[in-house]
Structure formats: structure tokens, C-alpha cells
């Protein structure tokens, strides 16, 4: 198990036991960060432990924060994209090794010359390079993509502003099609009170090849980070989005035709799906999302399945803790089970990171959920990846009030599993 922080602040990275990391370089284009001092790292790889036995690496307060991480596994290490809250905000790239330790000197601004804020970045890996997609915060937000080489260096001249509909565009994700060698991108467009889910195929260099509207009508999509998700199934792209009162998964066929969506039925009076995440298992899809609980009014995390042709009856159920407020779920398929992570607010009124392993049907393995963080400060926006043996989870840690830092945990999660 490893815990580290990407402290994009003017300070040092310190563990919960007080050990100091290396000083941070606050350069605008390439920001380096100290790793954990190792005080909370066991001598051998171990399952991610319950709250109270994992020390959460804390960070000195400073004027710049890092937040909203996404991550991919490239076969030998993790690559992350995240946002730094400096004016203007920047989409950043970094490597973490297989044990979750930040690779020193690897943090790069993916578009250092950008003239506006770069918000909510997301990342995908083609096998030879990365694509980072983010919202460019102009007067009328645009979608931009930037390519990063396998060595972690941004590719000069690779930034592309996607021609999109007027209005505000953002809150999206991106995936790679290794058959046709194109990217798939989904995002949400807002024009006044009308919102639509958009999908586009992009060339290997990021040029838009075509764009379609996923939903019918204009009553779509809460304007929330990562409410539009795209994945590659092994044969085609699939996309998920929520509307004001329904949840949808559609496959993308041919050059971009949207299939009739699998509509997930309401299971509550206060049906209000949000915070969608999607994964393919090769034969179908699993979706995790939040919805209001009838009894408490709190949002709880649901898991459900579709075979691509429709919702699998009876597969939708709550996986977060009863009575708690769940949010920001993320899911990955390992080949035999699902790993899920989410943030959850309990009695202490702070958000902590939780995880669970689910079998192929979506049932909790050993009926167990695992709390991964503790310490009285909120942790949000977890994203999970699988390296073939262990899970990696990146999340946003509240350092002090408005300041955040990206943290990462690597190990196995609740229910046992590979060591």
C-alpha cells in the first residue's frame, strides 16, 4: 500500500506523523512535488487498510491547490490529469509509479501557453500517447484537447480547440478506439436552460471527425463534473449520461450513430440520478451513479448493469452505506470483478473515501465496504484504476479550507483479493 500527495502548493508534503517531504517547485509550467516520507508505508504490499491504520498524508497550507484527478494505468505506471487552482487554472499531467509514488519531476502543464482557465481535465491512453481533454473557460466554454507523449512531455503544437456548439461545453470524458485509431469524446453542452449530451470521434491527432447529439430533446444532463462518460467496449464506444429524471447508456456504432439508449428505470420517488460513471466488462456495461434515498433525502451510490441492448432487470441496488451521503463514484472492471470507490459524508459531516469489490453480478464480495481515509478533513472526487494486480485510487484531499491536494492510494481493497 502507498499513499502520496501531489501538493501543488508553496510548501512541503508532510505525513500524518509529521515527517517532511522535499520542497516544492512552484514553476508555472512544470511543478514538482515531494513524495511521502514513507512513515505510513508498510514494508510489504498489503491490502488497503481500514480507517485508523492508514495515515493520510497531509500538506502544508499554501496559495495553490491541485484537485479533480483522473488517472489511467499504462502497463507500468499511472498517468494522472488534474486541475491546479491558480489564475488561470491549469490542466496538469503527472506520473506515479506502480506503488503510487509520484515520479519526481513528472508534473507538466499540458498547455502552458493557454490564455484561459483549463477546468476538469480527463485523460486516456492510446498505447503510445495520452490525450487530455479539458474545458477552456472562455466567455462560452470550449472543449480543448492536448496530447502528451509516452515520456510525459506535452507534444508541441498538439492543442486543438474542438469546434463545438455555441454556449458552454464541458464536464466530459475521453476514450481510445485501438481498432480505428480514433478517440471518442463525450461532453455536455448548455445553451440557456437547454442541455444536450454530445459525442464526437477525434482523429489520432485530436481533430474532430464528426459530432452527434446523444439525447433527444434538450432536457438533459445536470451540470455536474463527470456527468457524461465514454468507454471503449472492445468493439465500439459506449456513453452514459443522466437527464432530469432518467439515466441512459447508449452504444456508438459505425462512424457515430447513437443506438437507442438503455434507460434505467426509477427505483425511488425522489428519482434524481447524478454523478455517473461507466465501465465495460467486454460483454456489457456497469454503471455507478448517485440518487436520492426516499427515506433520508441523501444521495446514495447505486450500481446497475446493462448488456448494451437494455437495462438488466433487478441489477440496480445501493452499494454505499445506509443513511450516509454518497457522491462521486468511480468504477473499474478487473476481468473478474468490479472495483468501486466513492466519497461519503457520515456523522462527522466530512467526506471520506470508501471502496468495495463487487462480483460479476454486482454483489458486494463478503458483504464488505472499506473506509480508506479519515482524519477530519474532506476527501472528494476519487477515481479508480486497475494495474492487473492491485487497485489505484486518486482523490482530492482538503488540506485547509479552500486548499486541496491530490492524494493516491495503491493496494487491494475490501473483501481480500490479490496481494
Any overview of this molecule?
There is one protein chain. The strands form eight sheets. Strands 17, 18, 19, 20 and 21 form a five-stranded antiparallel beta sheet that branches. Strands 1-32-31-30 form a four-stranded antiparallel beta sheet, with no helix packed on it. Helices cover 0% and strands 50% of the residues. It has 419 residues and is an all-beta fold. It has strands spanning 2-6, 12-14, 20-23, 58-59, 66-73, 78-84, 90-96, 108-109, 118-125, 129-136, 142-149, 160-162, 168-177, 182-191, 194-202, 208-213, 228-232, 237-243, 246-253, 257-258, 262-264, 274-280, 285-292, 299-306, 317-318, 325-333, 338-345, 351-358, 364-371, 379-386, 391-400, 403-411.
Mean residue pLDDT: 76
Shape: globular
Structure summary, number of beta strands? 32
Name the poorly predicted regions: 1-50, 52-63, 415-419
User: What structural class do helix, strand and pairing data support?
Assistant: mainly beta
- Oligomeric state: single chain
* CA-based gyration radius: 20 Å
Helix content: under 10%
- What profile does the largest beta sheet have? 5 strands, antiparallel
Percent in strands:
over 45%
Number of H- or I-type helical stretches:
0
How far is the first residue's CA from the last residue's CA? 10 Å
Amino acid at each position: 500500500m502507498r499513499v502520496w500527495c501531489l501538493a501543488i502548493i508553496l510548501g512541503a508534503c508532510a505525513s500524518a506523523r509529521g515527517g517532511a517531504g522535499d520542497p516544492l517547485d512552484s514553476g508555472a509550467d512544470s511543478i514538482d512535488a515531494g513524495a511521502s516520507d514513507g512513515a505510513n508505508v508498510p514494508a510489504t504490499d498489503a491490502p488497503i487498510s481500514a480507517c485508523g491504520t492508514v495515515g493520510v498524508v497531509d500538506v502544508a497550507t499554501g496559495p495553490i491547490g491541485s484537485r479533480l484527478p483522473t488517472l489511467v494505468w499504462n502497463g507500468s505506471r499511472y498517468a494522472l490529469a488534474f486541475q491546479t487552482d491558480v489564475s488561470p487554472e491549469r490542466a496538469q499531467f503527472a506520473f506515479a509509479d506502480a506503488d503510487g509514488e509520484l515520479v519526481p519531476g513528472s508534473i507538466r502543464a499540458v498547455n502552458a501557453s493557454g490564455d484561459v482557465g483549463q477546468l476538469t481535465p480527463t485523460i486516456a491512453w492510446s498505447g503510445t500517447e495520452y490525450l487530455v481533454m479539458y474545458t477552456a473557460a472562455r466567455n462560452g466554454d470550449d472543449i480543448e484537447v492536448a496530447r502528451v507523449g509516452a515520456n510525459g512531455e506535452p507534444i508541441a503544437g498538439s492543442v486543438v480547440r474542438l469546434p463545438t456548439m455555441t454556449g458552454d461545453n464541458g464536464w466530459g470524458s475521453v476514450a481510445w478506439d485501438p481498432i480505428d485509431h480514433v478517440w471518442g469524446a463525450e461532453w455536455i453542452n448548455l445553451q440557456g436552460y437547454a442541455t444536450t449530451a454530445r459525442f464526437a470521434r477525434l482523429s489520432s491527432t485530436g481533430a474532430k471527425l464528426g459530432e452527434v447529439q446523444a439525447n433527444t430533446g434538450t432536457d438533459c444532463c445536470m451540470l455536474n463534473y463527470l456527468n457524461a462518460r465514454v468507454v471503449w467496449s472492445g468493439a465500439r464506444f459506449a456513453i452514459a449520461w443522466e437527464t432530469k429524471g432518467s439515466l441512459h447508456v447508449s452504444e456508438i456504432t459505425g462512424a457515430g450513430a447513437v443506438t437507442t439508449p438503455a434507460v434505467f428505470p426509477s427505483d425511488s420517488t425522489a428519482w434524481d440520478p447524478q454523478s455517473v460513471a461507466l465501465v465495460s466488462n467486454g460483454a456489457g456495461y456497469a454503471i455507478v451513479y448517485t440518487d436520492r434515498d426516499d427515506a433520508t433525502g441523501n444521495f446514495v451510490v447505486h450500481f446497475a448493469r446493462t448488456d448494451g441492448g437494455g437495462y438488466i432487470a433487478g441489477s440496480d441496488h445501493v452499494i454505499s452505506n445506509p443513511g450516509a451521503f454518497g457522491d462521486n463514484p468511480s468504477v473499474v472492471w478487473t476481468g473478474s470483478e468490479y472495483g468501486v470507490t466513492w466519497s461519503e459524508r457520515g456523522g462527522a459531516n466530512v467526506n471520506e473515501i470508501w471502496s468495495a469489490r463487487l462480483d460479476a453480478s454486482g454483489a458486494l464480495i463478503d458483504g464488505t465496504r472499506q473506509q480508506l481515509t479519515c482524519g477530519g478533513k474532506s476527501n472528494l472526487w476519487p477515481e479508480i484504476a486497475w494495474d492487473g494486480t492491485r487497485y489505484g485510487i486518486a482523490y482530492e484531499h482538503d488540506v485547509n479550507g479552500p486548499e486541496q491536494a491530490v492524494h493516491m492510494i495503491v493496494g487491494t481493497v475490501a473483501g481480500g483479493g490479490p496481494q
